[in-house]
Structures are given as structure tokens and as C-alpha cells.
Amino acid sequence: MQCDACGQALESLIALGDGVRAAFRAGAVSSSDRRRVLAAAGRAKGCSVREYRLPHNGSVNCTVAPDDELLVARLETPLQGVERLDALVQHSLEPVVQHRLQDVPFDPQAGRCSASRKLDEVRRLPAHTVQVTLLSVESGGTHELGRYVFRHRPWPGW
Description:
The protein has helices at 4-25, 35-43, 119-124, and strands at residues 49-54, 59-62, 70-76, 84-91, 99-101, 112-116, 128-138, 141-152.
């Protein structure tokens, strides 16, 4: 960089990238992100990523280890022709409460969506089950694409 203003702009961009990686590593960020963004965050500076890949209508026993820095779930589902993807999330800790996540990013060619949760929140949780239902939202209404079950257990000794 040949001038002070350009050098400062570059330093600001580098600091921003470092800050984003630090926020993911600290578990301060939840996101529904495309695979390449999460993969890039995981590769940056050797970040430890715990990843769960669930087949269509699949389930998994899951946990978070003390050294995990990112938590990623990849849900496979048929997405051809889907205009908008929503997710209904229900926790066994709050069985009567259902959260709706609207306009979840997805990759129709790969047939999956990816999501990341805040690690600091997940680490504090007792054993529980989370059910995620993916919905295709269209002008004519919604229809279910798949259901996924996460059976979480705390890391032994926590």
C-alpha cells in the first residue's frame, strides 16, 4: 500500500476478519450460512470444527467437546424448485414452544442447508433433543421437506 489511508483501510479489513473468526471461536455467533463460508472459517488458523451431517430425515447423537470452536450441522434434503426455506425448531426443554426460522440460506444444487449454533449456549445445556423440520415456502403455501433430530448430551465431566 502506497499511502497511509490505503494502509489503514487494509488494516481495518484484516482486523474485521480477525474479529469475525474470534466471534465464531468464542461461540458468540449463531448463523445459517452456506457451506463455503463455514468451511473457510474452520480452515482459518486451524479452527476446530465439530460437524454433523444428517441424511434426509436423519438423526444424530451429538455433543460439543471442550476444544471445539465451531459447531456446524449440514442437513441434506431435496431442494430443487424450492423458492424459500424455513425451519421449525422444537427443543425437548421447551416442548410446547416452536421457533420458526424464516428464509434459511440453502444450496439447491448440493441438496442441503447448513447451520451453526452458539457454542457457549450449547455447552450450558443439559441432555435434550432438538427436532428441526425444513419447510418449502411457496406462493401456494408450505410443505414439509424433511425432519431431523439431534440428541444432545453434555461432554463427559462437564
